[in-house]
């Protein structure tokens, strides 16, 4: 596994972002177009800007392994949902031009305030049907551009458990739809005490469909809060062992931290990777 990072972890110009990645000895990134002064999901783009991204990545020896394409796939405002789909079509063109193979998605929430906040309607049949309908529109675009769509289990989203993620994948049975595995995202508060079992069950259901892996951590308080990898309670020995056991050899993308925490988290992950069996 190669260690990478969310580009948004670093603030500043495009050149500064890639310089910092190289200085921190990271070799790949999940890139957000905002790091190049663009909208994360634009309606239009300038190829000259994309060329600058490609050039900066090449000069600093950083591989663009994924693009962030998170919009609310079940947005209760249908007009906003359709806008997200339209922007996704443009993002597919950009990803293909940048030769970036994965676009990460957000399966979404019926919460009108934030796609990262829970709403009880997320468990409704309407929410599930909205997710399926949006996915049916996105997949042909991904296929046309030879891209993989990566979805995560998110406690606040319509896909909030590994079992639901498995059901979703099985309905489509499409090689362009895969899993972004994030160990910290798998937990609801009541599951902390059964951490190894929860991780093992998630991999048993999803371990053969991982296209990208994330690395952040869980705080040790009662409510689920995310912190930098190595500063919380996530069982990284088990998490990394499972990634290796399921033959995952792709990028491990650090996120959920500040720029000042990068070196410490990277050292922690390198140490854990060195003896993960």
Automatic annotation (TrEMBL):
InterPro entries: IolE/XylAMocC-like, Xyl_isomerase-like_sf, Xyl_isomerase-like_TIM-brl
Domain of life, per lineage: Bacteria
Statement: the UniProt record of this protein carries the keyword Isomerase: yes
Provenance organism: Massilicoli timonensis
Keyword Amino-acid biosynthesis: no
A Pfam family it matches: AP_endonuc_2
GO molecular function: isomerase activity
Record's protein name: Sugar phosphate isomerase/epimerase
Species classification: Bacteria, Bacillati, Bacillota, Erysipelotrichia, Erysipelotrichales
Keywords assigned by UniProt, alphabetized: Isomerase
Domain Xylose isomerase-like TIM barrel: 41-255
